[in-house]
Inverse folding.
Protein backbone atom coordinates (compact mmCIF):
# COMPACT_ATOMS: atom_id res chain seq x y z
CA UNK A 1 0.00 0.00 0.00
CA UNK A 2 1.27 3.51 -0.77
CA UNK A 3 1.09 5.08 2.69
CA UNK A 4 1.69 8.53 1.28
CA UNK A 5 -1.33 8.25 -1.00
CA UNK A 6 -3.77 11.13 -0.94
CA UNK A 7 -7.17 9.89 0.11
CA UNK A 8 -8.80 13.10 -1.09
CA UNK A 9 -7.87 12.40 -4.70
CA UNK A 10 -5.26 15.18 -4.93
CA UNK A 11 -2.07 14.47 -6.89
CA UNK A 12 1.00 13.92 -4.79
CA UNK A 13 4.58 14.94 -5.33
CA UNK A 14 6.39 18.20 -5.91
CA UNK A 15 3.90 21.00 -5.51
CA UNK A 16 5.75 23.03 -8.13
CA UNK A 17 4.94 20.30 -10.62
CA UNK A 18 1.43 19.23 -9.69
CA UNK A 19 -1.47 21.32 -8.47
CA UNK A 20 -5.09 20.38 -7.96
CA UNK A 21 -8.34 22.31 -7.87
CA UNK A 22 -12.08 21.55 -7.49
CA UNK A 23 -14.61 22.08 -10.15
CA UNK A 24 -8.12 32.98 -79.50
CA UNK A 25 -8.26 29.90 -81.81
CA UNK A 26 -8.09 26.47 -80.49
CA UNK A 27 -5.72 23.87 -81.91
CA UNK A 28 -7.24 21.17 -84.05
CA UNK A 29 -8.57 18.40 -81.95
CA UNK A 30 -6.93 15.04 -82.13
CA UNK A 31 -9.06 12.68 -84.16
CA UNK A 32 -10.38 15.37 -86.60
CA UNK A 33 -8.59 13.98 -89.66
CA UNK A 34 -9.64 10.41 -89.09
CA UNK A 35 -13.24 11.50 -88.73
CA UNK A 36 -13.12 13.47 -91.97
CA UNK A 37 -11.46 10.56 -93.74
CA UNK A 38 -14.20 8.20 -92.72
CA UNK A 39 -16.88 10.60 -93.88
CA UNK A 40 -14.97 11.24 -97.16
CA UNK A 41 -14.92 7.52 -97.82
CA UNK A 42 -18.64 7.33 -97.34
CA UNK A 43 -19.07 10.24 -99.79
CA UNK A 44 -16.86 8.55 -102.42
CA UNK A 45 -18.97 5.43 -102.26
CA UNK A 46 -22.03 7.64 -102.76
CA UNK A 47 -20.39 9.20 -105.85
CA UNK A 48 -19.86 5.82 -107.45
CA UNK A 49 -23.52 5.11 -107.00
CA UNK A 50 -24.41 8.00 -109.40
CA UNK A 51 -22.99 6.13 -112.44
CA UNK A 52 -20.71 7.59 -115.25
CA UNK A 53 -22.54 10.95 -115.72
CA UNK A 54 -20.20 13.97 -115.49
CA UNK A 55 -22.95 16.02 -113.84
CA UNK A 56 -23.49 13.22 -111.45
CA UNK A 57 -19.79 13.02 -110.70
CA UNK A 58 -19.50 16.77 -110.09
CA UNK A 59 -22.59 16.85 -107.94
CA UNK A 60 -21.34 13.90 -105.93
CA UNK A 61 -17.88 15.43 -105.48
CA UNK A 62 -19.38 18.71 -104.33
CA UNK A 63 -21.52 16.85 -101.85
CA UNK A 64 -18.46 14.99 -100.56
CA UNK A 65 -16.53 18.23 -100.03
CA UNK A 66 -19.44 19.73 -98.10
CA UNK A 67 -19.81 16.65 -95.93
CA UNK A 68 -16.10 16.47 -95.13
CA UNK A 69 -15.92 20.17 -94.31
CA UNK A 70 -18.96 19.88 -92.06
CA UNK A 71 -17.46 16.90 -90.27
CA UNK A 72 -14.23 18.74 -89.56
CA UNK A 73 -16.15 21.73 -88.23
CA UNK A 74 -18.18 19.54 -85.94
CA UNK A 75 -15.12 17.82 -84.52
CA UNK A 76 -13.26 21.08 -84.00
CA UNK A 77 -16.30 22.63 -82.38
CA UNK A 78 -16.58 19.70 -80.06
CA UNK A 79 -12.98 20.14 -79.01
CA UNK A 80 -13.38 23.89 -78.33
CA UNK A 81 -16.72 23.79 -76.56
CA UNK A 82 -17.29 23.11 -72.88
CA UNK A 83 -17.27 19.51 -71.76
CA UNK A 84 -20.34 17.71 -70.68
CA UNK A 85 -20.75 18.15 -66.96
CA UNK A 86 -21.11 14.42 -66.51
CA UNK A 87 -17.55 13.83 -67.78
CA UNK A 88 -15.92 16.47 -65.59
CA UNK A 89 -14.05 15.15 -62.51
CA UNK A 90 -15.00 16.78 -59.22
CA UNK A 91 -14.47 16.26 -55.51
CA UNK A 92 -17.24 14.42 -53.74
CA UNK A 93 -17.98 15.53 -50.16
CA UNK A 94 -17.21 13.01 -47.41
CA UNK A 95 -20.09 10.73 -46.54
CA UNK A 96 -21.23 10.69 -42.93
CA UNK A 97 -21.29 7.26 -41.35
CA UNK A 98 -24.13 6.74 -38.88
CA UNK A 99 -22.87 6.35 -35.34
CA UNK A 100 -22.86 2.77 -34.12
CA UNK A 101 -23.13 1.22 -30.71
CA UNK A 102 -20.29 1.44 -28.24
CA UNK A 103 -19.29 -2.20 -27.65
CA UNK A 104 -16.80 -3.44 -25.09
CA UNK A 105 -15.93 -7.12 -24.66
CA UNK A 106 -14.92 -8.04 -21.13
CA UNK A 107 -12.71 -11.07 -20.39
CA UNK A 108 -14.04 -13.98 -18.40
CA UNK A 109 -12.47 -15.46 -15.27
CA UNK A 110 -8.89 -16.66 -15.14
CA UNK A 111 -8.91 -20.47 -15.05
CA UNK A 112 -6.42 -23.30 -14.91
CA UNK A 113 -6.09 -25.57 -17.91
CA UNK A 114 -7.08 -29.19 -17.61
CA UNK A 115 -6.08 -31.24 -20.67
CA UNK A 116 -5.45 -28.92 -23.57
CA UNK A 117 -5.47 -30.22 -27.16
CA UNK A 118 -3.22 -28.03 -29.29
CA UNK A 119 -5.01 -25.31 -31.23
CA UNK A 120 -8.45 -26.10 -29.90
CA UNK A 121 -10.55 -24.64 -27.16
CA UNK A 122 -9.13 -25.88 -23.87
CA UNK A 123 -11.23 -27.51 -21.20
CA UNK A 124 -11.15 -25.58 -17.97
CA UNK A 125 -11.51 -26.45 -14.31
CA UNK A 126 -12.07 -24.09 -11.37
CA UNK A 127 -8.87 -22.51 -10.14
CA UNK A 128 -9.55 -21.83 -6.45
CA UNK A 129 -12.21 -21.58 -3.78
CA UNK A 130 -11.77 -17.83 -3.30
CA UNK A 131 -11.58 -16.64 -6.92
CA UNK A 132 -13.97 -13.84 -7.83
CA UNK A 133 -14.47 -12.17 -11.20
CA UNK A 134 -16.46 -8.94 -11.18
CA UNK A 135 -17.52 -6.38 -13.80
CA UNK A 136 -18.00 -2.70 -13.09
CA UNK A 137 -19.39 -0.50 -15.87
CA UNK A 138 -20.67 3.04 -16.46
CA UNK A 139 -22.61 4.61 -19.34
CA UNK A 140 -22.91 8.41 -19.46
CA UNK A 141 -26.04 10.34 -20.35
CA UNK A 142 -26.14 12.73 -23.30
CA UNK A 143 -25.95 16.50 -22.94
CA UNK A 144 -29.75 16.43 -22.89
CA UNK A 145 -29.71 14.15 -19.86
CA UNK A 146 -30.79 11.03 -21.77
CA UNK A 147 -29.26 7.67 -20.86
CA UNK A 148 -28.55 5.56 -23.95
CA UNK A 149 -30.11 2.15 -24.20
CA UNK A 150 -27.45 -0.10 -22.70
CA UNK A 151 -26.96 -3.58 -21.29
CA UNK A 152 -24.47 -6.19 -20.12
CA UNK A 153 -24.84 -9.65 -21.69
CA UNK A 154 -22.94 -12.85 -22.24
CA UNK A 155 -21.13 -13.02 -25.56
CA UNK A 156 -23.77 -15.43 -26.89
CA UNK A 157 -26.44 -12.79 -26.21
CA UNK A 158 -27.89 -14.08 -22.95
CA UNK A 159 -28.73 -11.04 -20.81
CA UNK A 160 -26.91 -10.34 -17.57
CA UNK A 161 -28.11 -6.86 -16.63
CA UNK A 162 -30.10 -4.08 -18.28
CA UNK A 163 -28.56 -0.69 -17.58
CA UNK A 164 -31.04 1.60 -19.37
CA UNK A 165 -33.94 1.08 -21.75
CA UNK A 166 -33.93 2.49 -25.28
CA UNK A 167 -35.03 6.15 -24.88
CA UNK A 168 -36.37 6.33 -28.44
CA UNK A 169 -36.18 9.73 -30.14
CA UNK A 170 -37.53 12.32 -27.69
CA UNK A 171 -38.51 15.70 -29.09
CA UNK A 172 -36.08 18.48 -28.16
CA UNK A 173 -37.28 20.75 -25.40
CA UNK A 174 -36.04 24.12 -24.27
CA UNK A 175 -34.42 23.95 -20.87
CA UNK A 176 -33.54 26.75 -18.51
CA UNK A 177 -30.25 25.03 -17.70
CA UNK A 178 -28.48 21.96 -19.05
CA UNK A 179 -29.44 18.85 -17.11
CA UNK A 180 -26.96 17.23 -14.78
CA UNK A 181 -24.79 14.50 -16.22
CA UNK A 182 -25.95 11.06 -15.12
CA UNK A 183 -24.53 7.56 -15.37
CA UNK A 184 -26.09 4.16 -15.78
CA UNK A 185 -23.99 1.71 -13.83
CA UNK A 186 -23.21 -1.95 -13.24
CA UNK A 187 -21.58 -2.40 -9.88
CA UNK A 188 -19.69 -5.50 -8.70
CA UNK A 189 -21.54 -7.87 -11.02
CA UNK A 190 -20.16 -11.40 -10.77
CA UNK A 191 -19.57 -13.14 -14.12
CA UNK A 192 -18.40 -16.63 -15.06
CA UNK A 193 -17.78 -16.12 -18.78
CA UNK A 194 -16.90 -13.48 -21.37
CA UNK A 195 -19.40 -10.60 -21.23
CA UNK A 196 -20.27 -7.70 -23.54
CA UNK A 197 -21.19 -4.12 -22.61
CA UNK A 198 -23.31 -2.45 -25.31
CA UNK A 199 -24.46 1.19 -25.30
CA UNK A 200 -26.59 2.37 -28.24
CA UNK A 201 -26.02 5.60 -30.16
CA UNK A 202 -28.32 8.52 -29.37
CA UNK A 203 -28.91 11.37 -31.82
CA UNK A 204 -26.32 9.90 -34.20
CA UNK A 205 -23.65 10.24 -31.52
CA UNK A 206 -21.82 7.27 -30.08
CA UNK A 207 -22.45 6.69 -26.42
CA UNK A 208 -19.72 7.27 -23.88
CA UNK A 209 -19.14 4.16 -21.77
CA UNK A 210 -16.51 2.04 -20.12
CA UNK A 211 -16.13 -1.13 -18.10
CA UNK A 212 -13.49 -3.17 -16.30
CA UNK A 213 -13.23 -6.83 -15.33
CA UNK A 214 -11.28 -7.65 -12.17
CA UNK A 215 -10.15 -11.06 -10.92
CA UNK A 216 -8.81 -11.87 -7.47
CA UNK A 217 -7.87 -15.10 -5.67
CA UNK A 218 -6.16 -15.69 -2.34
CA UNK A 219 -5.52 -19.41 -2.80
CA UNK A 220 -4.69 -21.92 -5.52
CA UNK A 221 -2.16 -21.75 -8.31
CA UNK A 222 -3.72 -18.58 -9.72
CA UNK A 223 -3.32 -16.44 -6.62
CA UNK A 224 -3.09 -12.74 -7.28
CA UNK A 225 -5.00 -10.09 -9.14
CA UNK A 226 -5.71 -9.41 -12.79
CA UNK A 227 -7.77 -6.68 -14.42
CA UNK A 228 -8.56 -5.52 -17.94
CA UNK A 229 -10.69 -2.82 -19.48
CA UNK A 230 -13.43 -4.08 -21.74
CA UNK A 231 -12.12 -3.78 -25.30
CA UNK A 232 -13.64 -2.41 -28.48
CA UNK A 233 -13.39 -5.09 -31.22
CA UNK A 234 -10.84 -4.51 -33.99
CA UNK A 235 -9.25 -6.28 -36.96
CA UNK A 236 -5.58 -5.76 -36.07
CA UNK A 237 -4.29 -6.19 -32.51
CA UNK A 238 -0.79 -6.27 -30.95
CA UNK A 239 0.03 -7.93 -27.62
CA UNK A 240 3.42 -7.90 -25.85
CA UNK A 241 4.47 -9.87 -22.75
CA UNK A 242 3.52 -13.51 -23.25
CA UNK A 243 5.73 -16.31 -21.90
CA UNK A 244 5.54 -20.05 -22.69
CA UNK A 245 8.68 -21.26 -20.91
CA UNK A 246 8.70 -23.79 -18.06
CA UNK A 247 6.21 -22.90 -15.33
CA UNK A 248 4.55 -20.20 -17.45
CA UNK A 249 1.14 -20.59 -19.10
CA UNK A 250 -0.22 -18.28 -21.80
CA UNK A 251 -3.69 -18.73 -23.28
CA UNK A 252 -4.90 -16.42 -26.06
CA UNK A 253 -8.64 -15.76 -26.00
CA UNK A 254 -10.22 -14.47 -29.24
CA UNK A 255 -13.80 -13.20 -28.87
CA UNK A 256 -16.24 -12.32 -31.65
CA UNK A 257 -19.36 -10.46 -30.56
CA UNK A 258 -20.42 -9.57 -34.12
CA UNK A 259 -22.82 -11.41 -36.42
CA UNK A 260 -20.03 -12.09 -38.97
CA UNK A 261 -17.57 -14.99 -38.72
CA UNK A 262 -13.96 -13.97 -38.13
CA UNK A 263 -10.90 -15.71 -39.54
CA UNK A 264 -7.86 -14.83 -37.45
CA UNK A 265 -4.19 -15.22 -38.32
CA UNK A 266 -1.40 -14.86 -35.77
CA UNK A 267 2.07 -13.39 -36.32
CA UNK A 268 4.40 -14.53 -33.56
CA UNK A 269 7.69 -12.88 -32.56
CA UNK A 270 10.21 -14.28 -30.08
CA UNK A 271 13.64 -13.35 -28.81
CA UNK A 272 15.31 -15.14 -31.76
CA UNK A 273 13.03 -13.72 -34.45
CA UNK A 274 9.68 -14.36 -36.06
CA UNK A 275 8.21 -17.79 -35.38
CA UNK A 276 6.69 -19.78 -38.24
CA UNK A 277 4.10 -21.79 -36.39
CA UNK A 278 1.76 -24.38 -37.91
CA UNK A 279 -1.76 -23.81 -36.71
CA UNK A 280 -1.40 -20.05 -36.42
CA UNK A 281 -3.37 -19.22 -39.60
CA UNK A 282 -7.03 -19.35 -40.52
CA UNK A 283 -8.41 -19.65 -36.98
CA UNK A 284 -12.19 -19.45 -37.26
CA UNK A 285 -14.04 -17.61 -34.51
CA UNK A 286 -17.80 -18.00 -34.96
CA UNK A 287 -20.20 -15.15 -34.12
CA UNK A 288 -21.04 -14.93 -30.45
CA UNK A 289 -18.18 -17.17 -29.32
CA UNK A 290 -14.71 -17.13 -27.80
CA UNK A 291 -11.91 -19.33 -29.10
CA UNK A 292 -8.95 -20.10 -26.85
CA UNK A 293 -5.49 -21.10 -28.08
CA UNK A 294 -2.73 -22.34 -25.78
CA UNK A 295 0.30 -20.46 -27.08
CA UNK A 296 2.75 -23.12 -25.88
CA UNK A 297 1.17 -25.43 -28.44
CA UNK A 298 2.26 -23.25 -31.36
CA UNK A 299 5.24 -21.37 -29.88
CA UNK A 300 6.77 -23.44 -27.04
CA UNK A 301 9.65 -22.41 -24.76
CA UNK A 302 9.48 -18.71 -25.55
CA UNK A 303 10.30 -16.52 -22.56
CA UNK A 304 9.60 -13.39 -24.59
CA UNK A 305 6.67 -13.64 -27.00
CA UNK A 306 4.73 -10.96 -28.86
CA UNK A 307 1.53 -11.72 -30.79
CA UNK A 308 -0.19 -9.89 -33.61
CA UNK A 309 -3.76 -11.01 -34.26
CA UNK A 310 -5.31 -10.04 -37.60
CA UNK A 311 -8.95 -10.76 -38.34
CA UNK A 312 -10.62 -11.06 -41.75
CA UNK A 313 -14.38 -10.71 -41.45
CA UNK A 314 -15.81 -9.75 -38.11
CA UNK A 315 -13.70 -7.72 -35.69
CA UNK A 316 -12.49 -9.46 -32.55
CA UNK A 317 -10.89 -8.79 -29.22
CA UNK A 318 -7.76 -10.55 -28.02
CA UNK A 319 -6.49 -11.10 -24.52
CA UNK A 320 -3.79 -13.37 -23.11
CA UNK A 321 -4.26 -14.99 -19.73
CA UNK A 322 -0.69 -15.25 -18.44
CA UNK A 323 0.22 -17.08 -15.24
CA UNK A 324 3.36 -18.22 -13.44
CA UNK A 325 3.99 -21.21 -11.14
CA UNK A 326 7.49 -21.62 -9.69
CA UNK A 327 7.46 -25.16 -8.42
CA UNK A 328 4.68 -25.08 -5.84
CA UNK A 329 4.80 -21.29 -5.33
CA UNK A 330 2.29 -19.16 -7.24
CA UNK A 331 3.99 -16.44 -9.24
CA UNK A 332 0.93 -14.44 -10.26
CA UNK A 333 -1.65 -14.01 -12.97
CA UNK A 334 -2.45 -11.25 -15.46
CA UNK A 335 -4.62 -10.32 -18.42
CA UNK A 336 -2.34 -9.08 -21.22
CA UNK A 337 -4.32 -6.72 -23.45
CA UNK A 338 -3.47 -5.12 -26.80
CA UNK A 339 -1.38 -1.99 -26.79
CA UNK A 340 -0.82 0.75 -29.34
CA UNK A 341 0.03 -0.28 -32.90
CA UNK A 342 3.68 -0.09 -33.99
CA UNK A 343 5.00 3.48 -34.01
CA UNK A 344 8.27 5.31 -33.47
CA UNK A 345 7.18 6.38 -29.97
CA UNK A 346 5.47 4.38 -27.24
CA UNK A 347 4.46 5.51 -23.74
CA UNK A 348 3.43 3.41 -20.75
CA UNK A 349 2.31 4.79 -17.39
CA UNK A 350 1.54 2.95 -14.18
CA UNK A 351 4.99 1.34 -13.94
CA UNK A 352 5.39 0.61 -10.22
CA UNK A 353 8.99 -0.31 -9.28
CA UNK A 354 9.90 -1.98 -5.98
CA UNK A 355 12.97 -1.46 -3.84
CA UNK A 356 15.90 -2.14 -6.19
CA UNK A 357 18.15 -3.90 -3.66
CA UNK A 358 15.44 -6.34 -2.56
CA UNK A 359 14.39 -6.94 -6.16
CA UNK A 360 17.99 -7.73 -7.11
CA UNK A 361 18.24 -10.34 -4.38
CA UNK A 362 15.00 -12.00 -5.48
CA UNK A 363 15.81 -12.14 -9.19
CA UNK A 364 19.18 -13.76 -8.44
CA UNK A 365 17.32 -16.87 -7.26
CA UNK A 366 16.66 -19.64 -9.76
CA UNK A 367 13.35 -19.24 -11.56
CA UNK A 368 12.80 -15.64 -10.48
CA UNK A 369 14.50 -13.78 -13.36
CA UNK A 370 11.11 -12.49 -14.52
CA UNK A 371 10.06 -11.27 -11.05
CA UNK A 372 11.28 -7.71 -11.61
CA UNK A 373 10.28 -4.63 -13.59
CA UNK A 374 11.28 -4.67 -17.25
CA UNK A 375 10.41 -3.21 -20.64
CA UNK A 376 9.80 -5.46 -23.64
CA UNK A 377 10.20 -4.08 -27.17
CA UNK A 378 8.86 -5.93 -30.23
CA UNK A 379 10.13 -4.78 -33.64
CA UNK A 380 7.98 -6.33 -36.37
CA UNK A 381 10.00 -5.03 -39.34
CA UNK A 382 13.36 -6.33 -40.61
CA UNK A 383 15.39 -3.27 -39.55
CA UNK A 384 16.94 -3.01 -36.11
CA UNK A 385 15.63 -0.25 -33.86
CA UNK A 386 17.87 1.96 -31.74
CA UNK A 387 15.54 2.81 -28.88
CA UNK A 388 15.97 5.60 -26.34
CA UNK A 389 14.20 4.93 -23.03
CA UNK A 390 13.29 7.58 -20.47
CA UNK A 391 11.62 7.16 -17.07
CA UNK A 392 9.66 9.98 -15.46
CA UNK A 393 8.87 9.80 -11.77
CA UNK A 394 6.96 11.99 -9.39
CA UNK A 395 9.90 14.37 -8.99
CA UNK A 396 11.25 14.25 -12.55
CA UNK A 397 13.30 12.09 -14.86
CA UNK A 398 15.31 9.20 -13.46
CA UNK A 399 18.39 7.79 -15.19
CA UNK A 400 18.19 4.22 -16.37
CA UNK A 401 21.33 2.26 -15.50
CA UNK A 402 23.24 1.52 -18.66
CA UNK A 403 22.35 4.82 -20.30
CA UNK A 404 18.85 4.10 -21.56
CA UNK A 405 19.74 3.45 -25.22
CA UNK A 406 19.41 -0.10 -26.56
CA UNK A 407 19.39 -1.78 -29.96
CA UNK A 408 16.36 -3.98 -30.53
CA UNK A 409 16.83 -6.51 -33.30
CA UNK A 410 14.31 -6.39 -36.14
CA UNK A 411 11.69 -9.12 -36.26
CA UNK A 412 12.19 -10.05 -32.61
CA UNK A 413 11.45 -9.17 -28.98
CA UNK A 414 14.04 -7.50 -26.74
CA UNK A 415 13.78 -7.13 -22.97
CA UNK A 416 15.33 -4.21 -21.09
CA UNK A 417 15.68 -4.48 -17.33
CA UNK A 418 14.49 -1.54 -15.23
CA UNK A 419 16.52 -2.75 -12.23
CA UNK A 420 18.40 -0.10 -10.30
CA UNK A 421 15.73 2.57 -10.65
CA UNK A 422 14.57 3.93 -7.27
CA UNK A 423 11.25 2.62 -5.98
CA UNK A 424 8.19 4.55 -7.09
CA UNK A 425 5.66 5.02 -9.83
CA UNK A 426 6.86 5.93 -13.29
CA UNK A 427 5.91 6.75 -16.86
CA UNK A 428 8.16 5.04 -19.42
CA UNK A 429 8.66 6.74 -22.80
CA UNK A 430 10.54 4.94 -25.58
CA UNK A 431 11.37 6.38 -29.00
CA UNK A 432 13.17 5.19 -32.14
CA UNK A 433 13.44 5.86 -35.86
CA UNK A 434 11.95 2.40 -36.52
CA UNK A 435 8.39 1.43 -35.59
CA UNK A 436 7.95 -0.94 -32.64
CA UNK A 437 5.48 -1.98 -29.98
CA UNK A 438 6.15 -2.20 -26.26
CA UNK A 439 4.84 -3.04 -22.80
CA UNK A 440 6.25 -2.74 -19.28
CA UNK A 441 6.16 -5.44 -16.62
CA UNK A 442 5.55 -4.53 -13.00
CA UNK A 443 5.85 -6.94 -10.08
CA UNK A 444 5.00 -7.23 -6.38
CA UNK A 445 6.48 -9.48 -3.72
CA UNK A 446 10.10 -9.68 -2.60
CA UNK A 447 10.47 -13.16 -1.05
CA UNK A 448 10.90 -16.47 -2.83
CA UNK A 449 8.92 -18.43 -0.23
CA UNK A 450 5.62 -16.59 -0.66
CA UNK A 451 3.34 -15.81 -3.55
CA UNK A 452 4.31 -13.01 -5.93
CA UNK A 453 2.30 -11.26 -8.61
CA UNK A 454 2.91 -9.30 -11.80
CA UNK A 455 1.12 -7.16 -14.38
CA UNK A 456 1.83 -5.77 -17.84
CA UNK A 457 1.21 -2.10 -18.64
CA UNK A 458 0.77 -1.79 -22.42
CA UNK A 459 1.68 1.23 -24.51
CA UNK A 460 -1.34 3.50 -24.76
CA UNK A 461 -2.75 6.41 -26.74
CA UNK A 462 -2.63 9.91 -25.30
CA UNK A 463 -5.56 11.11 -23.25
CA UNK A 464 -8.29 13.11 -24.98
CA UNK A 465 -11.77 14.07 -23.83
CA UNK A 466 -14.45 12.15 -21.95
CA UNK A 467 -12.79 8.87 -21.14
CA UNK A 468 -14.86 6.72 -18.83
CA UNK A 469 -12.39 5.12 -16.44
CA UNK A 470 -14.02 2.46 -14.27
CA UNK A 471 -12.28 0.86 -11.29
CA UNK A 472 -12.96 -2.16 -9.06
CA UNK A 473 -14.50 -1.30 -5.71
CA UNK A 474 -11.97 -3.06 -3.51
CA UNK A 475 -8.27 -2.73 -2.76
CA UNK A 476 -6.03 0.27 -3.19
CA UNK A 477 -6.70 2.10 -6.43
CA UNK A 478 -4.58 4.81 -8.00
CA UNK A 479 -4.67 6.96 -11.11
CA UNK A 480 -1.13 7.18 -12.47
CA UNK A 481 -0.85 10.10 -14.89
CA UNK A 482 2.29 10.86 -16.90
CA UNK A 483 3.28 13.88 -18.99
CA UNK A 484 6.60 13.31 -20.80
CA UNK A 485 7.01 16.87 -22.13
CA UNK A 486 5.41 20.29 -21.80
CA UNK A 487 2.51 20.57 -19.37
CA UNK A 488 -1.00 19.14 -19.22
CA UNK A 489 -4.18 19.64 -17.24
CA UNK A 490 -6.28 16.59 -16.49
CA UNK A 491 -9.82 16.85 -15.22
CA UNK A 492 -11.18 13.83 -13.38
CA UNK A 493 -14.81 13.69 -12.26
CA UNK A 494 -15.94 10.90 -9.92
CA UNK A 495 -18.78 8.54 -10.90
CA UNK A 496 -20.41 6.95 -7.87
CA UNK A 497 -22.32 3.71 -7.55
CA UNK A 498 -25.63 5.60 -7.18
CA UNK A 499 -25.34 6.82 -10.79
CA UNK A 500 -24.30 10.38 -9.97
CA UNK A 501 -21.46 12.30 -11.56
CA UNK A 502 -19.86 14.38 -8.84
CA UNK A 503 -17.82 17.59 -8.74
CA UNK A 504 -14.69 17.62 -10.87
CA UNK A 505 -11.10 18.10 -9.78
CA UNK A 506 -8.15 19.15 -11.92
CA UNK A 507 -4.52 18.09 -11.87
CA UNK A 508 -1.96 20.45 -13.43
CA UNK A 509 1.02 18.22 -14.23
CA UNK A 510 4.44 19.45 -15.27
CA UNK A 511 6.22 17.80 -18.16
CA UNK A 512 8.73 15.13 -17.30
CA UNK A 513 6.81 13.98 -14.23
CA UNK A 514 4.25 11.42 -13.13
CA UNK A 515 1.38 12.17 -10.72
CA UNK A 516 -0.23 9.63 -8.40
CA UNK A 517 -3.85 10.17 -7.35
CA UNK A 518 -5.40 7.80 -4.84
CA UNK A 519 -9.02 6.90 -5.56
CA UNK A 520 -11.07 7.35 -2.39
CA UNK A 521 -13.49 4.66 -1.29
CA UNK A 522 -16.43 7.06 -1.21
CA UNK A 523 -17.50 10.54 -2.28
CA UNK A 524 -20.43 12.09 -0.41
CA UNK A 525 -21.28 8.73 1.12
CA UNK A 526 -21.44 6.82 -2.18
CA UNK A 527 -18.86 4.31 -3.41
CA UNK A 528 -16.59 5.53 -6.21
CA UNK A 529 -17.04 3.43 -9.36
CA UNK A 530 -14.80 5.41 -11.68
CA UNK A 531 -14.12 8.75 -13.32
CA UNK A 532 -14.88 10.83 -16.37
CA UNK A 533 -11.44 11.99 -17.45
CA UNK A 534 -10.36 14.67 -19.94
CA UNK A 535 -6.97 16.15 -20.76
CA UNK A 536 -5.78 19.38 -22.37
CA UNK A 537 -2.36 20.79 -23.15
CA UNK A 538 0.54 18.57 -24.06
CA UNK A 539 0.35 14.81 -24.41
CA UNK A 540 -0.66 12.97 -21.24
CA UNK A 541 -1.11 9.26 -20.51
CA UNK A 542 -3.02 7.42 -17.83
CA UNK A 543 -3.26 4.02 -16.16
CA UNK A 544 -5.20 2.64 -13.21
CA UNK A 545 -2.89 0.88 -10.75
CA UNK A 546 -4.52 -1.70 -8.47
CA UNK A 547 -2.95 -3.14 -5.32
CA UNK A 548 -4.09 -4.88 -2.14
CA UNK A 549 -2.86 -3.84 1.29
CA UNK A 550 -0.96 -6.66 2.96
CA UNK A 551 -0.75 -8.79 -0.18
CA UNK A 552 1.47 -8.94 -3.25
CA UNK A 553 -1.48 -8.46 -5.60
CA UNK A 554 -1.01 -6.00 -8.46
CA UNK A 555 -2.86 -5.18 -11.70
CA UNK A 556 -2.94 -2.33 -14.20
CA UNK A 557 -5.64 -1.03 -16.55
CA UNK A 558 -4.65 1.46 -19.27
CA UNK A 559 -7.16 4.24 -19.93
CA UNK A 560 -9.11 3.30 -23.06
CA UNK A 561 -9.74 5.77 -25.91
CA UNK A 562 -12.81 7.96 -25.57
CA UNK A 563 -16.00 7.57 -27.58
CA UNK A 564 -15.73 8.38 -31.30
CA UNK A 565 -17.85 11.17 -32.73
CA UNK A 566 -19.72 10.90 -36.00
CA UNK A 567 -17.26 9.55 -38.52
CA UNK A 568 -16.88 10.49 -42.19
CA UNK A 569 -15.38 8.51 -45.04
CA UNK A 570 -13.96 9.82 -48.32
CA UNK A 571 -15.97 8.97 -51.44
CA UNK A 572 -14.20 8.53 -54.80
CA UNK A 573 -16.22 8.75 -58.01
CA UNK A 574 -14.95 7.18 -61.20
CA UNK A 575 -14.71 3.97 -63.16
Amino acid sequence: MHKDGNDDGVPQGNQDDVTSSGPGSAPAAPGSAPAAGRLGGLAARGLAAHGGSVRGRVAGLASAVVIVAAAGSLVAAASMGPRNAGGRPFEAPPAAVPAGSNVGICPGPARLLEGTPVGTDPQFSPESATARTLVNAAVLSTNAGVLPGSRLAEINGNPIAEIAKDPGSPAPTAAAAPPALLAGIVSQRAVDSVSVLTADAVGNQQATAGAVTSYTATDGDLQGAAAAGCQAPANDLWLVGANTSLGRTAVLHLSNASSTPATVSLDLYGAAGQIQAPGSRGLLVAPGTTRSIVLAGIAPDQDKLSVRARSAGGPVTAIIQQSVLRGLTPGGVDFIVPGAAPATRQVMSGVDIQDPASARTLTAKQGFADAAAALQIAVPGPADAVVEIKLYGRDGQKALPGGGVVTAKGGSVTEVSLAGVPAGQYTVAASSDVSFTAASRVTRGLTSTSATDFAWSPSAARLGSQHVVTVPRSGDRYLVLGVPEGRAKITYTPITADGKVRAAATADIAGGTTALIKVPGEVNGAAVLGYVMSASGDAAYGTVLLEEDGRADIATVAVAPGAAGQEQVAVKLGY
